[in-house]
Amino acid sequence: MSEIWGRIKNGVKQALWGFIALILLFEEWGWNGLSxxxxxxxxxxxxxxxxxxxxxxxxWAALCLMGAxxxxxxxxxxxxxxxxxxxxxxxxxxxLLLLKLVGTAVVARLFQxxxxxxxxxxxxxxxxxxxxSWKEALFTRIRQSMPWRLGRVMKRQIQQQWxxxxxxxxxxx
Length: 173
Hints:
Number of domains: 2
Largest sheet: none
Number of strands: 0
Mean pLDDT: 87
């Protein structure tokens, strides 16, 4: 009985780690690009003023601001669940993906703006480097995995085929 429980526990643990890895990979891929989009939006004077206000926040206010996107997007995520429940799975999935993109962009930009204040919190300054180290070790494992390596090969092949197709289209014009 304990052997079965151990296998179930190990399977759940592996699934949880896989789920965490997928979330971190998505965040990593989207973090810089999406943040750059919002940074360009920050050139608009009202957004620039808001960003200056965010940068001036004390540490605990900065920490609270980091939770704001999750709280503000929660009602919209409930709309996505309602869409799923009412037979609109494709629309619900699209809506969830859109919310994930927007949430990642906002959190990435907020973190860039609040990181100096957050680093003033002793516990954050202590654990954030540890988190980065853990995340990098996880990414190293992921990058060494066979699915990742195969995905990279496929990505290069698709990019090469796209460039060849695009070059042919440009040559026709």
